[in-house]
Design goal:
The chain contains 19 helices and two strands. It is an all-alpha fold. Belongs to the otopetrin family.
Length: 598
């Protein structure tokens, strides 16, 4: 198969084209046999690449459709298709993915000329860190599930312990694979590698879908149990329930707390695997590789961290108040007012910041980065696609509230929250996407302003008078006769403490002077972009934390649920909410990229 061979550029063609400076030689060269041969080889390579992508995409599509049919059948008809049947299908897919990943690690990537190029834009540290973080939480989640099943083994099947064990092995192997090989542009076994990557993407998508539906059923059971407890307090409602032992409660609460991380892990893995699939057979020229990689430095920001920290602290307080009230059987009306009021105040600030940043981008004279970059293209698609989750829920809420006629304060706040959230998502997407497509400032210009001056600030720092005084006193005490050794040791320790405090003060002073100097030498446009980006990063972090750890007022307030019905609104929330959480997390990475390149 053509796609399984090593794709190399035609060296004769490269050398021949380099030796054709005039138009006449170029015309003769284009008529030559060598030119036609190189062009046909490159055309066959492109055709083979398109055919391999098409075949692997069709494979993933069929796997996703098959798994979706199984999961949907389990939801609508639990008699013929049970959760155990879906677990068996997912176990088979995970074992196949494990075999391919191990083969890639030990076979494909170890071949000569296998990885000639590495995509510097792919596999950013925050992406790989997210894979490790969410993967670790998913492993702990499966450990809690195994412990919970073991305690209730008298009413559960022993096979239920096998599936979380396979999941743990799959998560560990996949996390190791993505951490070490996310930047690979593999040059051998193209079609087999594409099919393996697409099979792994399809498996992660099905795991995400299964996690969403399982969470749907779990929350539904929990809500029904709450209603039963309101009517029959103290009665036993099920035979297979967790006992009053502490270890059982720990497994149960830990499983509920860590459950959202599993959905985030699947989505992040899909994004990394897609970039690897796009990079199969890709050859990167030298001008595509950046000479200097931008690094994150806390420079040029003062007001952004202050405003962002205020938003984070306030959000944590609101979240804790909400969680305390939400654990009760009947949440109070006031806590919903406080929760939505926090959003109504924060969302306009974020929207104004994003609009100002977009205007500054328009005022800049920076050129657009037009180089081919699969990672950036995927970031744009994920930002636009993940935002549809929150935007869709907001439009459903707007229709329900307007149709029912908002009269009280809570309905007005929810309506304002929905409109502001739509506007905030749109403005933030425009700001991030515009920033990702612009070239970064040249590092040499920064060094021209900050380098010599910063060295001068450090060099002109005069020695402290106390330092010379203490050294003279030390010499004097050493020359005095009759002093005891205890007094000398105490004096030396005191002098050392005084020196360490003095050095620490000098270092802090140098650092503050250097920071103020670097801040003052940045243009007002760059300062504004960094302030806005940092503020939006902190705001998106707190807006990610609150729904991830259980704050779901869109279902618990009962307004939209009473309009659409229990089952319909549950489907809308459980498909839109995970996408909204993923959007906040992905926005943090995009905003950090905008901050670094500003």
């Amino acid at each position: 198969m053509t796609g399984n061979k090593v794709s190399r550029p035609c060296h004769h063609c490269k050398s021949r084209s380099a030796s054709a400076p005039t138009d006449t030689s170029k015309i003769h060269y284009e008529k030559s046999w060598l030119y036609r041969h190189c062009s046909s080889v490159q055309q066959r390579d492109r055709q083979a690449q398109k055919a391999g992508q098409l075949f692997s995409g069709l494979l993933a599509m069929n796997v996703v459709f098959l798994g979706s049919a199984f999961i949907s059948s389990m939801i609508f008809n639990r008699v013929y298709i049970t959760l155990g049947d879906v677990w068996v299908l997912m176990a088979i897919l995970k074992v196949l993915c494990l075999f391919w990943i191990i083969y890639y690690l030990l076979g494909t990537s170890q071949q000569p000329h296998a990885v000639l190029y590495r995509d510097s834009h792919a596999g950013a540290i925050w992406i790989r860190g997210s894979v490790l973080l969410f993967g670790s939480c998913s492993i702990l989640l499966n450990v809690f599930e195994i412990g919970y099943t073991t305690i209730l083994i008298h009413c559960k099947s022993k096979v239920e312990i096998v599936f979380p064990s396979i999941e743990i092995v799959f998560i560990c192997t996949q996390a190791y694979f993505l951490w070490h090989h996310s930047k690979d542009c593999i040059q051998v076994q193209h079609n087999f590698t594409r099919c393996g990557l697409m099979l792994t993407i399809a498996t992660n998508l099905l795991l995400w879908l299964l996690a969403v539906t399982n969470d749907n059923l779990h929350v539904e059971m929990e809500s029904q149990l709450r209603e039963v407890e309101q009517r029959f307090e103290g009665n036993e409602t099920a035979s297979c329930t967790c006992s009053d032992t502490t270890i059982c409660k720990v497994f149960q609460k830990g499983y509920i707390l860590l459950y959202p991380f599993n959905t985030e892990y699947c989505l992040v893995c899909c994004s990394v695997l897609y970039v690897m699939w796009k990079n199969v057979g890709r050859r990167i020229s030298h001008h595509h590789v950046p000479h200097t990689k931008p690094k994150f430095k806390l420079q040029g920001v003062v007001f952004g961290p202050l405003l962002g920290a205020t938003a984070v602290i306030t959000g944590i307080c609101v979240f804790m108040m909400y969680q305390i009230q939400a654990t009760s059987l009947v949440p109070s009306h006031q806590i919903f007012v406080i929760y939505y009021s926090y959003y109504v105040v924060l969302l306009p600030l974020m929207s104004v910041g994003a609009v100002i940043g977009t205007v500054i981008h328009a005022l800049e004279k920076k050129e657009l980065d037009t180089l081919k970059n699969p990672t950036r293209s995927l970031d744009v698609i994920l930002l636009m696609g993940a935002a549809l989750g929150q935007i869709g829920m907001c439009y459903f809420s707007i229709v329900a509230l307007v149709a029912s006629g908002p009269r009280d304060l809570l309905n007005s706040l929810i309506l304002s929250y929905s409109v502001l959230l739509i506007f905030q998502n749109i403005t933030q997407n425009v700001f991030i996407i515009d920033g990702l497509h612009r070239q970064r400032f040249v590092a040499a210009a920064e060094a021209k302003h900050t380098g010599p001056t910063g060295q001068h600030v450090v060099a002109v720092e005069p020695p402290g008078e106390e330092e010379t005084t203490t050294s003279s006193e030390e010499e004097h005490t050493q020359t005095l006769p009759g002093k005891e050794e205890d007094t000398k040791e105490e004096q030396n320790r005191e002098d050392q403490r005084r020196m360490s405090v003095l050095e620490l003060g000098q270092e802090l002073r140098k650092a503050s002077l250097s920071y103020i100097h670097s801040y003052s030498h940045l243009s007002w446009k760059r300062r504004a972009l960094r302030e806005i980006s940092f503020f939006l990063v902190l705001c998106n972090i707190i807006l990610w934390v609150m729904p991830t750890f259980g704050a779901h007022p869109v279902f618990e307030n009962g307004l939209e649920r009473s309009f659409y019905g229990y089952s319909t609104w549950f489907v809308i929330v459980n498909f839109g909410l995970p996408l909204g959480v993923f959007y906040r997390m992905h926005s943090v990475g995009g905003l950090l990229e905008v901050y670094v390149t500003a």
